[in-house]
Amino acid sequence: MQQKAIYPDLDGRSVFITGGGSGIGAALTRAFARQGSKVAFVDIADADSEALVRSIREEGVRHAPLFLHCDLRDIAALRESVARAQQAHGDITVLLNNAAHDERHAVESVTPEYFDDRIAVNQRHVFFASQAVLPQMQRAGGGAIVNFGSVSWKLRQGGMPAYTMAKASMQGLTRGLARDYGKQNIRVNTLVPGWVMTERQLKLWVTPEAEREIDAGQALAGRVRPENIADMALFLASDAASMCSAQEFVVDGGWT
Ligand SMILES: NC(=O)c1ccc[n+]([C@@H]2O[C@H](COP(=O)([O-])OP(=O)(O)OC[C@H]3O[C@@H](n4cnc5c(N)ncnc54)[C@H](O)[C@@H]3O)[C@@H](O)[C@H]2O)c1
């Protein structure tokens, strides 16, 4: 098992991850399981999620992750999943609001129904997952929420305005919650990934032209991997970040 850093306080912690079955989320699930955390994650990708649980279990971690099928557009189902995670693992003290979907759309083609669906996939559940875990964090004496932003809107990326709008709003929620709950030792931050080489990104968007764009944009050579995002998430969740709240933490190879 390869781990760059070990955070003893994450051992045994009850961690809830949205969209933890594939992409960056899968790296988060694996990284926290390797720290000894009790991870519950929700996703709609059943086959990927089940394969991930098997693969992590085979590593011999102490607590195999708990996969809960949940479409985050359904807030009642999200609340039910949070309750099931709490029953299985105890009060949730780390919430990673990772799930989103960067489906492309042209402005002219967006109907009110499609717009609402993008908001439901990319924004609304972040508020309601936070609302559901906050009483647990208060009871436990503290916690950490990490909301996932994006460099896309900072780089003025077009082609998905409802997505970039939702991603830009993450920091607004982060700062509002950080103020309301900070005195109760609940820290809220935004983790901003750069262009991360997930299987999906590689399959859909990372063309030779895009590779040149990354090389020109990033200060660092190489590529941002899901593991690099997980490394920052571990730090933000752990007591190592005990005086970090209300901020954006960007992992983009020095692009923005
Ligand atoms: N990959 C990148 O380059 C990149 C860049 C900037 C920001 N981000 C952000 O990082 C986070 C993760 O990105 P990713 O690239 O891994 O995304 P992804 O699309 O590869 O994975 C997202 C996960 O969420 C799940 N999911 C999607 N809709 C869902 C729903 N309705 N209910 C439950 N689960 C659902 C998917 O099945 C998947 O497992 C997102 O918040 C994204 O905005 C990613």
TrEMBL record:
PROSITE patterns: ADH_SHORT (PS00061). The keyword Metal-binding does not apply. Keywords: Oxidoreductase. GO terms for molecular function: oxidoreductase activity, acting on the CH-OH group of donors, NAD or NADP as acceptor. It comes from the Bacteria. Coiled coil: none annotated. InterPro entries: NAD(P)-bd_dom_sf, Sc_DH/Rdtase_CS, SDR_fam. Belongs to the short-chain dehydrogenases/reductases (SDR) family. This is SDR family oxidoreductase. It comes from Teichococcus coralli. The lineage of its organism: Bacteria, Pseudomonadati, Pseudomonadota, Alphaproteobacteria, Acetobacterales.
